[in-house]
Every structure is written in C-alpha cells, then in structure tokens.
Amino acid sequence: MNAPAFPTGTILGYPRIGRRRELKRAVEAFWAGTLDAAELEARAAELRAATRERLTELGLGRDDSSIPESFSYYDQVLDTAVAVGAVPERFRRLQDERGAVDLAGYFTIARGEGEDAPLEMTKWFDTNYHYLVPEIGPDTPFALHAERIVAEFAEAKAAGYLTRPVIVGPVTFLLLAKAADGAPAGFRPLDRLADLVPVYAALLAELCTAGVEWVQLDEPGLVSESIDEPRDRVIEAIGVAYDALGAADCRPSVFIAAPYASLDDALPALAAAPVEAIGLDLVRGRVPEQLDPATAESLAAKTLVAGVVDGHNIWRGDLAQAFDRVEALRSISGDVCVSTSTSLLHVPHDVDDETALDARLVSWLAFADQKVAQVATLERGLVAGRAEIQDELDAASAALADRAGAPGVRVPAVRDRLAALADRDFTRAAYDERVAAQETLDLPELPTTTIGSFPQTADLRRARARLLQGELTDAEYRALMRDEIARVIRLQEDLGLDVLVHGEPERNDMVQYFAELLDGFAVTQHGWVQSYGSRCTRPSILWGDVSRPAPMTVEWSTYAQSLTEKPVKGMLTGPVTILAWSFVRDDQPLGDTARQVALALRDEIGDLESAGIRIIQVDEPALRELLPLKLAEQPAYLDWSVGSFRLATGGAAVGTQVHTHLCYSEFGVVIDAIRNLDADVTSIEAARSRMEVVDDLAGSGFDHGIGPGVYDIHSPRVPSAAEVQALLQRAVAEIPATRLWVNPDCGLKTRGYDETVASLGHIIEATRAVRSERSVPVLAE
C-alpha cells in the first residue's frame, strides 16, 4: 500500500486527566450519581478538544496525524478489552444485545459491584501507572465494538483535526492478560492470538473507512523480558499478528510504538513485519550499532520514530544529545520522526503552572507541554538543519550546566557519610533471635492490623488547605490532627484490631509528606499525574542530595501510642518507593540517591525507637515497579534496592519489629528480593488476585512473617466475612499460622469511613472464625 507521509514530529500520548483534574472530578461525580452519562461525555469531549487545541499551539500539526487520540475514561487496557469484547463472564450481563458495554458497565468492570470483583490491577511496566488485567480463557468471545474509538476520531475530524487513534496492540494485550478462572492447566492468553487478530483487522478496516490515515498500536510488551512468556514465543507472535494485519486490503498505515526499553531481539521481527513505522525508545533503549543486512534493509523502508524526549521524567534534558540521536537514525532510514520516548501520561501538564517553585529549579524542568515544545524544536532542526535550532540547544545545555553547579545538588557532608558505610550497617541480628525478643509484644496468632492510613475525610483536606492559606495557625492544625488520631485509635480498639496505626491524618501523600520535610526535595502545586482510574498523585521533585533536618513522624506516633496499651506502628515510606513515586535526579546512579534517603530514614527509626515505638513499618510498595525490564539489568537493581532498605532498617534494635508493605505487583518475580529485605513482617496485596501469591510464598520457602491482604481497598466493595474467611483459610492452608498476619491489601486513605468500618469489622469476624477453627484461644477484647 502507498502510505501517507508520517509527521516529522509527534508524541506517543498526552495526559488525559485534565490540567486541573477535570476528568477525575467528572468521573467521580458520575459514580456519585450527581452527573449523568451525557454530561460526563460532554465534559470529556471538552477536555479532548482543549488537548487538541493546546497541542497545535505547541507545534503539532492539525492535519498530519501528529496528534495522538489517547484519551481514556479509566484505563487504556480496559478500553481495549471492551473494544474487542473480552468481558469476563461475571460481567457479561452488562453487555447489550450487540455485546457492547455502556459507560456505567465499563466502570463496573473496573471497580466491581456486589459480589463481583473487579479486574485485577497491576503496574504498567516500570511505571507508577496501574492497568487493569484482562481475563482471557480458551472460550472468551472476541467481537469488535469500536464505536468509541471511531467516534473520538470523527469528533476530532469534525473540528478540523486529523488525529491518530492509539490502541494497545494485540500481542501486548494478550501478554498483559491473565488466564481466566477455570482455564485448563498450561493455557496462556497468548494462545488466543490467532482468534484475536481478525478482530484487530476488522478494527483497522473500520478506521480506514472512517478516514484514519495512521493508527498507533502500542506494543511495549515486545521490549520486556520480565513477562512470563518464552521470549521466542513473543517474537513469533509479532509475525503472526502483523503479517495478518499488514495484509489487510483496507487499513490505515500502522505505527508500532514500543516504549520503555530497547526492542533488542524483537527488532528484526518487527522490521520484517508489513508495518509502516516503528517507534524506538532512545532514552531508555538503543538501536544496535550493527544491524544484520536483512534488518537494515527492512528498516530503511520504514519511518523510524525517534523517542528522544524523555516521557518518563521531568528534567529539561540534553537537547543537543537528543538531536544527535535523531540524526544518527538517518543513517538507517531517510524517513525519521522526532518523538517522546513514552506517552506523556507519566508527567504533569505544564511547569508554567508552578508559580511557587524556585525559578532556578523551574529552568531545569520540562513537563508535558514543555516536552511537546521540545519535540517541535527538534522537528524544526530535522527539517531545516541544526543551525536553525542552535540557540535552543545552547539554552538547554546552559541549564544543565547551571543545575550541576547549584547549591544543594552536591552536599559534602551527605557524601562523606555514604563513603563511610560498612557492611555492618546493612545487617540486623538473625531473624530467630529477633522473633524471640519480639515475643514481649504479646500478639496472638493471626494478629490483625491495617497498612497505615485511614480515610482522608473532606474535613481533613479542608484543614490542610486552611493551614496553607493562613486561616489556621500551626497549633490549631496540630490540635485537629490530634483529635483525628484519638478518634482513629478509639475506632481500632472498638473494632478489636491487635496492632494499631495513628491513621496518618497529617499526611497529604505517603511520599510528599516526607519530601516536604527532607532537604533535596521540592513539591509542586499542580503537578498531578494519573496513577489509576480517577486516582492522581503529585510526585515530588528530588533534585539534590538528601538529608533529614529534624524528626518527621515521632510526634504523631508517640501521641497515638500514649492513647492505648496496644502497640502502635510507626509509619515510614521506604527509599525505593520515595524514588519510584518522585521525579528523581538523573545526574547520578539511582542507588546512590536511594542510600541517601535510606540514611535519613535510619535516623528516623532511631528516634522512633528512643520514643518507645516497638513496631515500625517501612513501606516499599514500589519494589517490583522499578525492576528493569531487561534481565541483565535486574541483579544490579535488586542489589541496590534491597541494600537501601537494609541500610534504612539495619540499625533497628533486636526487639523492634520491622514491617514492610508491597502492593499490586507480580511478587513471584521478586520473591527472593522480598526475603532479602529481611523485614520481620511483610504485608502484600492478595485480595483482588484471590490469594494467588500464597503459592509463590509456599513454593519459595519464605520463612518470615507475612500478611497477604484480605480486603481490596482499590474497590468500593465491602467484602463479606465469609469472603475474607475463605481467603484466610486458603492462606492458612499454605502458610504456618504462627507467621501469618491479617490485613487489608493497602492503606485506607481513598476509602470512606462507612465502607472501611464495615470491611474491617468483617475482617475481625473472619479472623475470629479461623482462629476458632484452629482452636486458637481468642484474647479477651
């Protein structure tokens, strides 16, 4: 086919939640019943229109397919599942007579309803974005329902824009899916590729008929070596899928985007496929210096989309180096396009909104809008020559030089402390010795606890806003926080929990709270990034060497402990998670930065112990998230990530019980690393996946305390006592009860109090029932 020209500059995707989280508010109003479906659709259309207008202002073309149509109400993988008809059996009642699902049904699949659990959730490659995991079985029906994809393209076309629809590609879609319940042993979702490809072919035909010139199929699954599928089978799937799709009579030109790492051994297969453009992540990946002749010949006939502007971080970057990479691709293909390395979904909208940030720091940053402008600059250089953009290249280089020499970026005292570390700083007493010393905590078998946070009410958020606006004094604010802590302690005692928490009412976010109290960080006003669904986070900016000027949590933990005879956990966020959920400096190895954060936390643990806190939780939910996609890079990562946790906790006394928490990841991949953390107790997500992780734990010989979650807090469902009891029974069947803890999957910050109290009540009821089954004496309440 004669392909239309691909643009010389584009992006792989753009933030979709809204500059002021407009989509979040509209979606949550729809869930609350205060906004109907038509109003939600209208607000979403306004957001899409504003995005198209903004992108053209920043330099992308209106009529050359350079603007990606990457909007989603909740999640792009869920969008694809609904578009191809892959609806789990328990939700097929939501489909109409044609098999389509309306908005209400779409959100029900995402969030669950009654006894019907939502789709499982896990991390999207090595990012903090969560996607919903499709459930595919041998008989899962596939049928095209592309109305929404076509309608959004038509909406743009009517407004004078020729956009590029973005859809998760068929290989990645199946690689990210899980086998549906009841699937036979050995079945893999990728087994259904031949059944799925005709649905994608029908989709391409509909898009062709609608006037689409280019379609973007996202295939990051092709770069990952961490997906549990033989690599040769993944590469074979490229040919199966794209030989068929490329042969279609009526289709748009196909652009395959493969972000987050190098294609490596998948590149020859993709080069040989009958697709017109291939996206290469040249920030985290590379193109081999030597290509075999067949691959080189195939790539020479394709458009190469050079992902040289970092879509994964917020630094302004080295624009001159980026342009060098673009020019280097011209030796492979004469048809080159400048792009971002990933979708800009992972960064905030606009650094110009950050009026409270230090101007010098702002000069080092580039959010989504600035990155689009960088793409436009590099595109101009690609077309008109380097001299045309030399001033912009020089300005970016000057900003880099200024950043390197700025005060606080390198602090000698911090670096001297790191240099003085010895092996003993990373090691505690033997686990058995610690267990014996911790018997004085006097805990029952199957001790119950929560992960840390309790619901952040509107009153708490208002109090924090009033403090920032000067309407409350610091003393008044602290009094309100103490009142909330006292209420949460009384509630937990009334429920009958064994190990309590203070509820974290003073914390705006589990990372930002610490960032505001540590040197080397800055925080934004409007730097929101989508985490999942309507949930957004505001990652802090780690720009310099990290240290702790003063204790950060001791006041709150000791006050909570003063209110009860039961142990109260001190709550800290671990070094890996602080890095993963911040925008981290890119001018030194991550391991060096992690150790700086670990030393600050080590000091905090010492102060908590001195104040009488006997149980301290250091959360590491992001441990799996940062695991490199390439196998060769994983040992070094696991060495520094585990090492930073052990440095943070290595000074804890033998009688101090150290907990950690991990959530929403495939734990089997990092089970050895979890063991090597050497925490006394590890709590992990397990409810949404229905305790699948216990098989990994049992098979690995994991021998420390473990708390597989029994309450999925990312759904509004209240699990019944019987449901929790069944989960606990499965866990007790695989894990000795002497090591088993009972807890929710994650913190309760995003839940309401009614559902929280009901769910925790059911957890206590179920725990007592399982204790009774085991004839374990229940302590007097």
3D architecture notes:
This protein is of the alpha/beta class and 781 residues long. It is built from 27 helices and 21 strands. The C terminus is likely disordered. The longest helix is centred in the middle third of the chain and has 22 residues. A hairpin with a 6-residue loop joins strand 2 and strand 3. The N and C termini lie far apart (75 Å). A 7-stranded parallel sheet has the order 1-5-7-8-9-10-11.
Short description:
By secondary structure, the chain is of the alpha/beta class. 40% of the residues lie in helices and 12% in strands. The chain is globular, with a radius of gyration of 26 Å.
What's the helix and strand layout?
Blueprint: H1 22-32, H2 37-57, E1 68-69, H3 76-83, H4 103-111, E2 121-123, E3 130-132, E4 135-136, H5 147-158, E5 164-168, H6 170-175, E6 178-179, H7 193-210, E7 214-218, H8 231-246, E8 253-258, H9 267-272, E9 277-281, H10 293-300, E10 303-309, H11 319-329, E11 336-340, H12 359-362, H13 368-384, H14 390-405, H15 412-419, H16 431-437, H17 458-468, H18 474-495, H19 512-515, E12 519-522, E13 529-532, E14 535-537, E15 540-547, H20 554-561, E16 569-573, H21 575-580, E17 582-584, H22 590-610, E18 615-619, H23 634-649, E19 657-662, H24 671-677, E20 681-684, H25 693-700, E21 705-708, H26 721-734, H27 753-773
Parallel strand pairs: 1-5, 4-6, 5-7, 7-8, 8-9, 9-10, 10-11, 15-17, 16-18, 18-19, 19-20, 20-21
Antiparallel strand pairs: 2-3, 12-15, 13-14
Helix pairs in contact: 1-2, 7-8, 11-13, 17-18, 22-23, 23-24, 26-27
